[in-house]
User: Which sequence fits this backbone?
């Protein structure tokens, strides 16, 4: 028996097999057996109270491992569990060992066959100790005490997931890891599985068994000791979306591969087993929704120390290696590429070759496109020649055609028929395999060495075909290539296709293409792309769908100042997120050429980090950040700037604020949403004292300290400040802050809109209302939704509504107003001199009793035009009271919100009378109420009445049956002045329909 078998973990598995009575007998025999053998006694008190796990630990602690197992087997025999004795014998001398020997040979052979690039020669097949430790750690219990049973390794293609899994198989076969945990480990490559139509799990296991028949029954007898490794899961294109009823628990049943995999991964089959799933990032979201308690691990690929070691291995001369690596380290894009072992080989090989030729790396390898162009052309160029032969050119064109087809059809593994359709005949295949651009996948299928190589070749297709015609109609024209490449909803595997296409339009790359193929298409393609970007700039709907960061990467890769300047001039609004230093570099490059922006929105994360308590920022990053921020001052028509989900250190914040303070910054709307500053925030609030153009300031989800509130209010009170609209939503305001805002209202006569949504104000409202009561108060719009207001606040607001002559809109949604509060508010609202035009009481916990007061307001106050009272339990009784007021000739209401008010079709008759008599009501919201077909018919009869003024009816159409939905559709078609729109969510948000 292998020594690793003798562990407490192994013992636990066997003790767990004992029934309760058998386990009690085991303890009694343990005392007798150790006495007979003259061994040290384990205190009976400890044995008596021990669980199975505790007892295994005690045995290993007090006796040698072999001794512990000898005792255990003797006791198993005495309590008539010879089956457990036999199982131990089989596991340690039989089938597991036979299978492990087979796995070791198989994966050793697989490893030696992966010698395409030399990377595998560098990455030793023998796992280092740290790798073994990591393999064991991924299945170790977590802090919660639970053990993970489904692990998902997420990583880009080529990042090393398969290499790691191969090492895990080899290491397990050598009895170095998992021996106490897993009796059998099975490796399934989905690239091979997808070739099968139907199979069973038993057949899959038998296919890889070294003997004619696998001991399936024995293997499956302990499912908790099985590990299934599923590699390249995305190859199956299986979303695990089958209904539960289609899944199968029978591992002997033949079924479609997708159903089999879904059954295994969704725990219908062998739920006690463990799973490791390796997958590309694009599939993880769907997996997360389908798997049972999955744990996701990001596979990092090469670390910097790995890259350095590989460069030294590649160059052999350490000085030259470090010179090359320093160049790569300073180029953010190349450095990121080198995280992927295969791409590290490509980068290292190209850099080495250019250095040997004595060429300037800053020109030949500065961009990814130029590096891949050098790599591909070199692979097709015979030794000693300057360019590929005509035959090689023809083969390369065929390869580019194949790559383009794959990109448009989501195909990454190609059959011989696919190759022939793109002009690659069987006799070409050996030569293409020699280039290492194309590699063998299975006996009759092929793939590109890496996804980025396929993308590059697909991009080259569009520069080598003047007509752009492809044998597969799925391959579209250049214009559609551009729009597809920069769409937010583009194909997930289109990572760099657009960038490479633009990169090949660079003058130097055109010279390479001209030297190889003897012609250029750059001028025509550039002109077409400019026309596309001009079209994009003219259509706001297209801009909403555009991933501007993807577009910036395209322009950056092209490195053509004149073209970039023209392209950026077409754009009036951009929206992007910066997550890496490369994103910052690319955005800085493009934005410095733009001058016509009107709207700018971006996020920046993971760039400005605090290290060792200090806010560190490389000078190059600060320069690039300055270029990004300078857009605020260099675009004279820029009106709106929104910074979201961002974290800035002090240097970054000061750089941003310096641009906001410049006289040339004419920004009118400034919004910061979920933005954190580290260091002093004075610079930001000082902007209000310098920039007189800002009229709309929104700070949302900003945790403002008391000092920061003071700084903000000081800026708002400054004579230079012209802010008219201020929103401070979820900014951690407290009651004591209201005194500062009261001062602002007293001093600043420009501020008309104040929104303090989602702050804990409560008792502070009193002092705010005192400012509202001042005769010279000019505030028109006040939102206090979700401000935790309590009973005394309604008295304060009563006084404010009674005395204030400027307030036009008041929103108290999601506060516990209740019927008593409504009564107090309505006393003030009934006054004929009350100027309020819009009132929102959404989700305010009042009932039909409160409707009586509101009805009296509708009759006595002809200024009120908008009333939103959704998400209150007023029912049909409350609506009846309101409808009586709405039909009164004095009522001037235009918009009424009654969503989720517990209404039924019984109220539709009352509502229909309003629709036929009211001359002013043009919008009615009835969504999320239990109306049926009969009620809808009554409403629609009223809508047809010639005196009906309603123009917008809001309903949740999806809650109606098909007959009612068709009826509503017909009604909308019949009445051209009516729009029946859908309420999108049932969240009771405040300020609805304001």
Assistant:
């Amino acid at each position: 028996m292998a020594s690793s078998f003798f562990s407490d973990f192994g013992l636990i598995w066997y003790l767990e097999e004992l029934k309760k009575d058998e386990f009690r007998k085991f303890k009694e025999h343990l005392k007798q057996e150790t006495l007979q053998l003259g061994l040290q006694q384990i205190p009976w008190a400890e044995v008596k109270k021990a669980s199975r796990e505790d007892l295994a630990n005690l045995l290993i602690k007090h006796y040698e491992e072999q001794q512990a197992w000898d005792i255990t087997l003797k006791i198993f025999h005495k309590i008539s569990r010879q089956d457990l004795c036999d199982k131990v014998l089989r596991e340690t001398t039989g089938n597991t060992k036979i299978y492990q020997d087979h796995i070791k040979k198989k994966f050793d052979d697989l490893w030696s066959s992966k010698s395409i690039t030399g990377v595998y020669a560098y990455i030793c097949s023998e796992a280092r100790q740290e790798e073994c430790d990591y393999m064991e750690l991924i299945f170790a219990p977590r802090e919660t005490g639970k053990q993970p049973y489904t692990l998902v390794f997420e990583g880009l293609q080529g990042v090393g997931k398969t290499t790691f899994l191969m090492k895990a198989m080899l290491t397990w076969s050598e009895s170095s890891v998992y021996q106490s945990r897993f009796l059998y480990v099975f490796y399934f490559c989905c690239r091979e599985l997808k070739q099968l139509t139907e199979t069973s799990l038993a057949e899959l296991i038998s296919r890889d068994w070294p003997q004619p028949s696998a001991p399936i029954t024995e293997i499956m007898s302990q499912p908790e000791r099985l590990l299934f490794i599923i590699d390249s899961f995305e190859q199956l294109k299986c979303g695990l979306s089958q209904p539960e009823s289609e899944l199968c628990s029978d591992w002997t049943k033949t079924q479609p591969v997708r159903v089999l995999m879904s059954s295994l991964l969704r725990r219908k089959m062998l739920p006690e087993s463990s799973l490791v799933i390796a997958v590309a990032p694009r599939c993880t979201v769907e997996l997360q929704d389908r798997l049972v308690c999955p744990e996701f691990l990001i596979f990092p690929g090469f670390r910097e120390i790995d890259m350095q070691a590989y460069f030294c291995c590649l160059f052999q001369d350490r000085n030259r290696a470090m010179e090359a690596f320093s160049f790569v380290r300073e180029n953010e894009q190349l450095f990121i590429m080198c995280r992927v072992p295969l791409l590290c080989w490509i980068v290292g090989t190209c850099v080495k070759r250019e250095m040997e030729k004595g060429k300037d790396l800053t020109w030949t390898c500065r961009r990814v496109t130029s590096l891949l162009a050098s790599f591909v052309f070199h692979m097709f160029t015979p030794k000693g020649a300057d360019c590929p032969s005509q035959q090689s050119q023809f083969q390369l064109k065929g390869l580019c055609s194949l790559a383009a087809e794959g990109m448009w059809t989501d195909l990454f593994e190609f059959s011989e028929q696919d190759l022939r359709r793109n002009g690659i005949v069987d006799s070409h295949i050996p030569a293409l395999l020699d280039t290492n651009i194309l590699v063998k996948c299975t006996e009759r299928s092929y793939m590109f060495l890496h996804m980025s190589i396929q993308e590059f070749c697909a991009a080259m297709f569009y520069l080598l075909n003047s007509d752009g015609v492809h044998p597969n109609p799925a391959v579209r024209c250049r214009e559609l290539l551009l729009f597809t490449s920069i769409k937010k909803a583009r194909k997930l595997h289109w990572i760099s296709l657009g960038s490479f296409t633009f990169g090949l339009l660079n003058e130097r790359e055109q010279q390479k293409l001209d030297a190889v193929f003897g012609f250029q298409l750059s001028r025509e393609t550039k002109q077409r792309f400019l026309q596309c970007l001009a079209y994009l700039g003219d259509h706001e709907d297209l801009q909403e769908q555009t991933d501007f960061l993807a577009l910036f990467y395209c322009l950056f890769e092209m490195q053509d100042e004149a073209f970039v300047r023209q392209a950026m001039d077409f754009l009036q609004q951009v929206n992007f997120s910066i997550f890496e230093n490369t994103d910052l570099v690319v955005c800085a490059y493009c934005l410095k050429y733009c001058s016509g922006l009107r709207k700018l929105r971006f996020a920046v994360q993971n760039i400005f980090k605090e290290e060792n308590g200090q806010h560190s920022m490389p000078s190059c990053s600060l320069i690039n950040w300055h270029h990004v921020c300078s857009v605020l001052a260099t675009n004279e028509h820029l009106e709106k700037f929104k910074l979201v989900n961002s974290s800035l250190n002090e240097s970054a914040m000061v750089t941003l604020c310096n641009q906001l303070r410049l006289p040339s910054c004419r920004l009118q709307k400034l919004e910061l949403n979920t933005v954190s500053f580290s260091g002093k925030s004075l610079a930001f609030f000082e902007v209000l004292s310098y920039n007189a153009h800002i009229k709309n300031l929104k700070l949302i989800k900003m945790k403002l300290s008391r000092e920061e509130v003071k700084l903000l209010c000081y800026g708002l009170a400054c004579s230079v400040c012209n802010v008219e609209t201020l929103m401070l939503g979820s900014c951690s305001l407290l009651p004591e802050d209201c005194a500062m805002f009261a001062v602002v209202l007293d001093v600043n006569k420009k501020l008309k809109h104040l929104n303090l949504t989602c702050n804990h104000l409560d008792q502070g409202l009193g002092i705010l209302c005192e400012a509202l009561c001042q005769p010279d108060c000019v505030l028109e719009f006040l939102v206090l939704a979700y401000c935790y207001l309590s009973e005394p606040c309604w008295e304060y607001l009563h006084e404010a509504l009674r005395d204030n002559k400027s307030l036009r809109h008041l929103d108290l949604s999601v506060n516990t107003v209740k019927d008593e509060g409504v009564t107090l508010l309505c006393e003030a609202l009934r006054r004929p001199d009350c100027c309020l035009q819009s009132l929102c009481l959404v989700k305010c916990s009042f009932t039909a009793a409160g409707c009586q007061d509101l009805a009296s307001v509708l009759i006595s106050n002809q200024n009120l035009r908008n009333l939103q009272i959704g998400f209150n339990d007023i029912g049909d009784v409350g609506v009846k009271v309101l409808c009586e007021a709405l039909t009164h000739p004095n009522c001037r209401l235009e918009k009424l919100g009654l969503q989720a008010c517990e209404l039924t079709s019984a109220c539709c008759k009352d509502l229909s009378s309003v629709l036929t008599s009211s001359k002013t009501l043009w919008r009615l919201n009835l969504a999320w109420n239990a109306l049926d077909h009969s009620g809808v018919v009554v409403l629609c009869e009223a809508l047809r009445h010639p005196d009906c003024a309603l123009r917008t009816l809001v309903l949740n159409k999806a809650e109606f049956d098909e007959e009612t939905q068709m009826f509503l559709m017909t009604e909308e078609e019949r009445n051209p002045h009516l729009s029946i729109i859908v309420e999108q969510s049932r969240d009771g948000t405040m300020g609805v329909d304001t």
In short: The longest strand covers residues 640-648. The first helix runs from residue 8 to 15. The mean pLDDT is 88.
